[in-house]
């Protein structure tokens, strides 16, 4: 009986640690999210884990309650078995299923807005293997991809800008990182054609980052113009324009 108690205490302690680590986003194992897209995906995954834990505990307790009715009580051993089953359920469902990083081959699928979100998650997983300057650009790129994703909402998939984004974010960006990762680590700092692979990757990511920002601004131009027109109208109707109108009418 003492062994059972010690085992249940140990499992309970380990399961609490697993739940705490998952609740904190696995901060000891993973870097912070690079953008809202990846952070939202993690929150959704964590919510599903909590749901699974709740369902498992409900099933365990209902099942044990039904058994207690049949046996006219479950006794101390039954109570300890219930506790043990509960902590095992917590430990299992807090750690599984693992959150899946999008595979390279799956990035450029679905609509272009979903593709941008998958690229963000994929980039986040690649960041630890990149040189620090390139990793910094990837970290900043998460915010850019969030902004781009907002502009892509409702955009026709055949729109020229949608195709441009698919090529830049879904093909050229991951291809660049794939090419770098295929280079042996001891060769990445050897200069070739005036630059090392580390420098070439950083420079290329910087250019892609600039192009993402440019496309986002171009897509936002319509909204910016619309806002400016509304602002001018309201200013004329309720602002300085409205205040001067009565004076003009009085002079006439």
The helix/strand series, from N terminus to C terminus, equals HHHHHHHH
Q: How many individual helices?
A: 8
- What share of residues are in beta strands? under 5%
- Point out poorly predicted stretches: 1-5, 22-29, 247-252
Overall number of domains: 2
State mean pLDDT (0 to 100 scale). 77
The count of DSSP E runs of length 2 or more, i.e. the number of strands, is: 0
Shape: flat
Structural classification? mainly alpha
Q: Strands, helices and their partners?
A:
Elements lengths: L1 H22 L12 H36 L3 H21 L16 H15 L5 H21 L7 H22 L15 H42 L1 H12 L1
Helix pairs in contact: 1-3, 2-3, 4-5, 4-6, 5-7, 6-7, 7-8
What does it look like?
The chain is an all-alpha fold. The chain has 2 domains: 2-95; 104-238. It is built from 8 helices and no strands. It has helices spanning 2-23, 36-71, 75-95, 112-126, 132-152, 160-181, 197-238, 240-251. α2 (36-71) packs antiparallel against α3, α4 packs antiparallel against α5 and α4 runs parallel beside α6. The longest helix is centred in the last third of the chain and has 42 residues, at 197-238. The chain is flat. The model is unreliable at 1-5, 22-29 and 247-252 (pLDDT under 50).
């Amino acid at each position: 009986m003492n062994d059972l108690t010690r085992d249940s205490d140990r499992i309970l302690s380990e399961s609490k640690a697993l739940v705490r680590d998952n609740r904190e986003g696995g901060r000891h194992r993973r870097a912070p999210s690079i953008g809202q897209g990846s952070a939202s995906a993690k929150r959704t995954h964590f919510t599903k884990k909590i749901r699974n834990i709740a369902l498992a505990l409900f099933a365990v307790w209902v099942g044990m309650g039904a058994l207690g009715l049949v046996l006219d009580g479950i006794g101390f051993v039954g109570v300890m078995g219930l506790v043990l089953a509960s902590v095992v359920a917590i430990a299992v469902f807090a750690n599984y299923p693992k959150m899946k990083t999008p595979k390279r081959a799956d990035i450029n699928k679905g609509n272009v807005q979903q593709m941008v979100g998958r690229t963000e998650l994929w980039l986040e997983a690649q960041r630890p293997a990149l040189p620090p300057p390139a990793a910094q650009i990837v970290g900043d790129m998460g915010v850019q991809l969030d902004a781009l994703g907002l502009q892509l909402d409702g955009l026709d998939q055949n729109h020229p800008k949608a195709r441009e984004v698919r090529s830049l974010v879904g093909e050229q960006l991951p291809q660049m990182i794939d090419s770098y990762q295929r280079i042996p680590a001891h060769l990445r700092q050897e200069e070739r054609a005036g630059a090392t692979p580390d420098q070439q990757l950083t420079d290329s990511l910087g250019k892609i980052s600039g192009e993402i920002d440019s496309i986002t601004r171009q897509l936002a131009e319509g909204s910016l113009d619309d806002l400016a027109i509304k602002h001018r109208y309201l200013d004329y109707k309720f602002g300085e324009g409205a205040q001067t109108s009565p004076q003009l009418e009085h002079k006439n």
